[in-house]
Amino acid sequence: MVSMNPRLLGWLRAYRRDDLAGDVGAGIVVAMMMIPQGMAYALVAGLPPVAGLYASIVPPLLYALFGTSSSQSVGPMAIISLMTASALAPLASPGSALYGMLAAQLALVSGAVLLACGLLRVGYLANFFSRPVMSGFTLGSAVVISLGQVRTLLGGALPHVHGPSAALGVGSIALLLFARRWLAPLLRRLGMPCGAADVAARLAPMVLVLGGIALVASLRLDRMGVQVIGAVPSGLPGLRLATSAAHWQELLKPSLLIGFMSFLIAMSGAQTLALKRAEKLHTNRELVGLGLANVGSALSGGFPVTGSLSRSAVNFAAGARTQLAGVITAGLLAGALVLPTGWLALLPLPVLAATIIVAVLGLLDWSTLRTAWHYDRADALALLATSGGVLLLGVEAGVVLGLLLSLGTMIWRESRPHIAVLGRIPHTEHFRNIDRYSAETDPNVLLLRVDAGLFFGNIEAVSERIEEELAAHRAARHLVLVLSAVNAIDSSALFGLLELNRALARRDVRLHLAEVKGPVLDRLRASTLLSELSGRLFLSTANAWNALARHDT
Amino acid sequence: MVSMNPRLLGWLRAYRRDDLAGDVGAGIVVAMMMIPQGMAYALVAGLPPVAGLYASIVPPLLYALFGTSSSQSVGPMAIISLMTASALAPLASPGSALYGMLAAQLALVSGAVLLACGLLRVGYLANFFSRPVMSGFTLGSAVVISLGQVRTLLGGALPHVHGPSAALGVGSIALLLFARRWLAPLLRRLGMPCGAADVAARLAPMVLVLGGIALVASLRLDRMGVQVIGAVPSGLPGLRLATSAAHWQELLKPSLLIGFMSFLIAMSGAQTLALKRAEKLHTNRELVGLGLANVGSALSGGFPVTGSLSRSAVNFAAGARTQLAGVITAGLLAGALVLPTGWLALLPLPVLAATIIVAVLGLLDWSTLRTAWHYDRADALALLATSGGVLLLGVEAGVVLGLLLSLGTMIWRESRPHIAVLGRIPHTEHFRNIDRYSAETDPNVLLLRVDAGLFFGNIEAVSERIEEELAAHRAARHLVLVLSAVNAIDSSALFGLLELNRALARRDVRLHLAEVKGPVLDRLRASTLLSELSGRLFLSTANAWNALARHDT
């Protein structure tokens, strides 16, 4: 296992010359992906395309310094851009100076939240979304993003389509889909090595952008009404953050949601790649890296960023061995902005819209739906409900819905634990489920084994089941809970047991505990349960049986 | 166990004459509590006091017809009134006709939500709040409610206190506290039976209200500036609901939160009492009963209602045996409104404020905090954070925070499952944790036993731990996961195992499964894991050992 050095810049201290070629190659390839993606996702966020280039320089640099994944590519990402647009829509109009400042503020607050979470070491928050819910969230977001680009793609709202724009847009989609499906196999057949062909095919959007610019310039399509991005200010961005105090509070909630989702998105991508290389991610360091990347984006004219799985996978495939690849990407983007940027002005918007639509279609993951449908219908329904929630209620409500569905399906599963009535296998000290074994029971004693940790989500169900069993065993004056499979008892469950003990005592039934695990027992000693218990604490079920059963068998 | 008849009106069909005396007595006592409480909680909700009387007639009647708890007293309740006031504050000004209509609409939508949940049988939602979080929510709400009454209690905002009002208010608090602490013991010493003394002491607020009215009438305190409730319209309420379409959408979210909390509050009270009598609640029927009670409240000039633990406990203690007690309470309240209500006009508001403050102080439950603090610090912190959230962010944010903290503490506990490296006890077929037993291992094979169900909340932690163990056992070419303690694998965990299998295969490590439980195996057969597995499926750990170990021991 290539355990990453957890120290700051560990990868640089331990840098090996052998890794240089891979890092440089990957850095260049990712930069070529980043230029069209950055501009496209800035459009999704409702910002001028150049903001996407700004957000592609400082964030990957800071992530390289503080993050722990060797292949993570941090920068603009479609879903986070959609969330940015959704958060800012009620506060300012896209294109205004205020809108740009608020976008930066959103990145600043999201970054601060991520940073705080990292320093507080609450990285386990990454475990709050189930995989199907994440997939449903992505599905819904991808549809919303695609629909949002249709007008730009066609040069007007349906049915008023602008012919040249639509031709350019739809043609671009066709070319990009062709590249995705057929270009890599074609290059391979032409003799290119497998990995190189796959990576080269990912450069299609950049090639298309250059082709689009050339086409507009040669045919003067802009004079025919095809929208272009217009003048891109050359040079590096300065400090663009303005404090508009009135908006801080309104940005807090969306910042929390954006911070949360950018962490989930970055981690799910990084973990998949880390597994392939047996690399260890430090979750809390990832939070810090991602948080600083967002703060850096805010301070350099950008907007919220995260790790992009599509770019990270290319980074990985193109041979990135360390975070140096990210540094090189950042350097190239900065270089592109220092050079004259006049050539970018003629980039046609329908081409960018096409790259957005094809990119988000690539996020769709039908295999998760298919697998979940066959394996666990509840998870499949949670997936569909989450995507429906994003479509109908919006992306922010979708996050909350996803969270509730993830946790809800889990609580639902945990809320009915398996409980077995035990009996003794005759002439032994073994006790087994009487439904499965022919075991002897005693009318005076009811032995129940609970096969799950006790917590607030199941203690009521356990109490109800106990009442049912007591009703079915009316003669029993002793209830023995066999806790051999109980790994934990939370305080809600402790209160439940205290109440059960008192209620049973009033009805002349004694409550006993048996086979309590060491760590659980240690905790219980800090409560009053053991001293209040109407019955006794037994080391083993056999001890309880010998003490309580009538021994007439 | 007195299993309640799950059929509609089962209690009536099976009514026994013996229960009549208890039901009548309890119905009268609860009506005497309901009159001051109803008016007081209407004030908390920002409504005229008579609305509280309206909300005390139809709701208990409908609950009696459809609910399943024999002692539940449904009607106005402090926390739900606070949530009502909080929901309506941005939409209308208290006292206006619109405010009253919106309060009824809120009850209608909450009721419809509860009804829908009952018909959809999602009663397990009651398990979403941990006990400490519920306690923290109550604590925060009680403080907010008390602070909201200080101005009414003192007849003005501090430091501008109105002498006579303040004297009346503070004196009432003193009397109520005295009654709560000393009245029951005093009555007992005077020879009253224990139970009767406790119940009689709960009538102190009604006695105080009557005394307050007499005092105002005799000293004409109202002419000295003590605020009184004024004319109370006699007669029963008609249909008061007005549809103001524009507000429906704004009421949806608060209605969901109010419906959710009224269910949690009603269930936690009813469950405690049901346990004492071995009575079985039907959670989904409870949802229906509570939902219809709210719909009925809406249609009769009321506002959101729920079960009140303080009244239900008195109902129980006063001898209520069936839902007839609730019917009698409703009848008495209706009777009180049909009779002339002029005498109520002089009821001084400071006295009502005093009853509110003393009632919500009675909701405080320090023992939960104390117990949780010693037993489970994380739960105690969740309690404090929830109450702080209600105080600082408001009652609605408090519900969401409570939900996230309940589920968050649980995920956090589940996110680090116990995993043991197993070895063979020499010359046996038993395999045990090598940290605890001197067991033999084989460099070629790594045996790991996971002691928890696998789900989205822990699969990443499990994968990480597996990587760590593989790094520590570099020679191992076979990883055997012993799943004897795994009760379930959700689809997120399935994807995790699929990825682990592929990643290990690439690194030339085979993944095997052993001791997979029957139900888990059945589910896995619906996935591709078993066919994709690089290794094999073993019935027992011993089989895996015999097949994979080098047998040089």
UniProtKB/TrEMBL annotation, chains A, B:
Specify the protein name: SulP family inorganic anion transporter
